[in-house]
Amino acid sequence: MTRTVEGAAPRGCSQSGESQGRPRLGLADPGGLPGGQLASPATQIAMATSAVAQTTVSVDGGRLLVVPDAGQRLAASAGGAAGGALGTPVVVLLHGAGSGTDTPLLRRLSELLVVAGVTVGRLEMPYRVAGRKAPDRPARLDAVLMAAVAALTGELTGGTPPADGTPRRLALAGASMGSRVAVRTATAVGARAVLALGFPLNPPPPRPSLRERPGTPASRRPSLRESPGAPARDRPSRQGELSGAGVPVRVIQGERDAFGRPEPDPRRGVEVVVVAGADHSFKVRVRDGRAAEEVIEEAAVLGATWLLRWLDVPSSPVGGLEELVSRGAAGDPSCAAAQTGS
C-alpha cells in the first residue's frame, strides 16, 4: 500500500446543533468573491473543500482518495488516540461502471459531507486505474472495497489498522454499479447505512446481434425484448439485493431511469426518493425545464442530509447554507413527515 498527500491545509469548518431532527450543513467562514460579494452557498462549500489536504492510497489495484474534514486531520496531527479516530464519521464513495468518482453528483456529495465534518474516501476500482473499460468481477469489486475500508482505518489511526477495528460511524454511497457493491458488502464492513444513487434495478437488455437493414427477413430481426428500449418489467429484478442489505438504504432514483425504479421496503429499511426529470445518470433534457445543476444539487443534498443523520453528525445552519439544506429537506419525504408530525 502506498500513499501520497495533496493539497493545502484545510480551512475552518464547523458543526454543532440540530434542527427539526435533521442535520444541517454550515461553514464558519462564508467566503467571498472579488469585489466584496458573498459567494453562493454552493460556491462557499466548493471553496472550503478545495483547500483540504487529500491523501491518495493505493489499495489492491484500486485507488482511494481520502478527503478528511478539518477536525479529523488536526486530531491526527496532534497524535489523537486510535479509539477517538475510529469514531470519526466516514463515507466511502463508489462509482458506476462507466464513470469514476469525479462525476458532478459524487463530487457535490463529497463536498457537502466534508464541510459537515465527515471524512470521505473516493474509491476508484482497479479496472479504471488500469485504464480498462470492462468492470472487474463482482467478487473482485467487493474485495477491493473491503480492503479500502481497512486501509482507510489505517489512515484514521495513523498506522496499521487494529485487528478488531473499523470506523464505527461508517456509511457507503454508490452510484449505479457502486450501489450494488455497497449493499452487498455493507454488513461485512460494518456500515451503518447505504446511499444508492441510481440503483440499476433491472439488468440492461442484450444488444441486438443483427442490425435492422433493408431486406433483412423479419424472422432474423431483433425482437422487442432484445432491443435497448425493452420495458424494465420484462427483465430480471435486483430488488432482493436492496432488501437483503441488512442496513438502512436510501435509494435516490431519477424519474426517467431506464434501469427501472426499486420499490420501497419499509420492513427492511429501504426507502426510495425520486428526482423529477432526471435519468439514470441524473442528467436532464431541455424540455424537462430543469437546470442540470439544480438536479445535481437536489440529489446531493437529499443524500447528504440522510447520511449525516445515520452518522450522528450534527451541524448548524450558517449563512446561505440554511436555504440550501432547507431546499433539500423540502423534497425529503422522511424529513417532511418529521416536520409535520405525521
**On the 0-100 scale, what is the average pLDDT?**
74
How many domains is the backbone divided into? 1
| CATH level-1 class | Alpha Beta
Q: Report Rg.
A: 21 Å
Overall number of strands: 9
The residue ranges in which pLDDT falls below 50 over 5 or more consecutive positions are 2-39, 70-83, 222-229, 316-322, 324-342
The number of helical segments is 11
CATH architecture: 3-Layer(aba) Sandwich
Write the CATH fold name.
Rossmann fold
Strand order of the largest sheet: 1-2-3-5-4-6-7-8-9
Helical amount: 25-40%
Largest sheet entry = 9 strands, mixed
- Beta-strand portion reads 15-25%
Biased composition (Low complexity): 22-31
InterPro entries: AB_hydrolase_fold (IPR029058), KANL3/Tex30_Abhydrolase (IPR046879), NSL3/Tex30 (IPR026555)
Domain KANL3/Tex30 alpha/beta hydrolase-like: 90-211, 235-302
Region (Disordered): 1-39, 197-265
Characterization of this structure:
The chain has 342 residues and is of the alpha/beta class. It has a single domain, classed as Alpha/Beta hydrolase fold, catalytic domain (Rossmann fold). Helices cover 33% and strands 15% of the residues. The protein has eleven helices and nine strands. It has a nine-stranded mixed beta sheet, sandwiched between helices. Helix 1 crosses helix 4, helix 4 packs across helix 9 and helix 6 crosses helix 7. The N terminus and C terminus are likely disordered.
